[in-house]
Amino acid sequence: MQMAIDLSLDLVNVAPTAKPPVCRIMDYGKFRYEQQKKEKEARKNQKIVDLKEVWFRANIDEHDYQTKFRNVVKFLGEGDKVKASVRFRGREIAHASIGQKILDRLAQEVAEICSVERAPKLEGRSMIMILAPKSNT
Fold first, then answer.
1. pLDDT at residue 70 is higher than 90
2. Residue ranges making up the domain that contains 120
């Protein structure tokens, strides 16, 4: 303790459970400042992944499909996950295979830029598939 006082630094107990306890002489205020700076830098470099949703209909026209397809590609390019859904109305639910074909086609066309995180599955009146962008590493 006297060495720390002479150097006008702090005596920090690094490993209190060790036998004998381990202590270090350091400027604790400077250490805390550097730790906070590192944490702030780490938070700044984090990428928050959003889940974007794109709705399709069972009887979607080709042009409408292409527009929604471009949106899916854009969202995946930005690093976001995409929830592709086919919404069924009325008696369309009896032809769920049409929705399955639409989602399978979408998955096939974006196969090189993403992976299917969750295969198409019927939930209530909509069929849902989740696409995640492929990592660049």
1. yes
2. 51-133
